[in-house]
From TrEMBL:
Record CDD domains: TRX_family (cd02947)
Gene Ontology CC terms: cytoplasm
Organism: Sesamum angolense
Protein name, entry field: Thioredoxin M4, chloroplastic
PROSITE patterns: THIOREDOXIN_1, THIOREDOXIN_2
């Protein structure tokens, strides 16, 4: 395996003739050949600012660019609720409301975020979805007895109707939502 890794030569992004070309590993470190990949939509090449890392042989080398997925920017962002907007967005809502209580340092919260985003998209128009950062709005969390995060609460007609604690599968949340639609 080490012999294969030693023979791989990856030029810096700026040395590539085109952003759609990529190096192919060869048997000789001096030989470089390029293969044109089909066009990738939603990906862009971002150049790194002089970051230095150590290889497996402890030789410092500069890293080239990095590929960033732009699809993150097009995903539905579940809006945040604060102390000031809680009453109008959640309690006075005409439709059922799903509220995720989370914190940026919480690993399971980061696991459930994509599920909540998907449900927000799936139930758009039928259900409103919001997030409450418990570090920024501790009064809301304590008002509803949130002792563990992530916790998902379902509100209907301004009243708490159901609670799901922990990073649960999408099917669990879907079953819970369907009861109130």
């Amino acid at each position: 395996m080490a012999a294969v890794l030693e023979s791989l030569t990856v030029p810096r992004a700026s040395a590539l003739p085109s952003a759609s070309l990529a190096p192919v590993a060869g048997s000789s470190a001096a030989r470089r050949s390029y293969v044109r990949f089909s066009e990738f939509r939603g990906l862009k090449l971002q150049t790194a600012r002089s970051s230095v890392s150590m290889s497996f042989r402890s030789r410092p080398h500069r890293r080239g660019g990095q590929i960033v997925c732009e699809a993150q920017e097009t995903a539905i962002e579940v809006p945040a609720v604060t102390d000031s907007s809680w009453q109008s967005l959640v309690l006075k809502s005409d439709s059922p409301v799903l509220v995720e209580f989370w914190a940026p340092w919480c690993g399971p919260c980061r696991m459930i975020h994509p599920v909540i985003d998907k449900l927000a998209k799936q139930y758009a128009g039928k259900l409103k979805c919001y997030k409450v950062n418990t570090d920024e709005s501790p009064s809301i969390a304590s008002q509803y007895g949130i002792r563990s995060i992530p916790t998902v609460l379902i509100f209907k007609n301004g009243e708490k109707r159901d609670a799901v604690i922990g990073a649960v599968p999408e099917s669990t949340l879907t079953t819970c939502i369907e009861k109130f639609l």
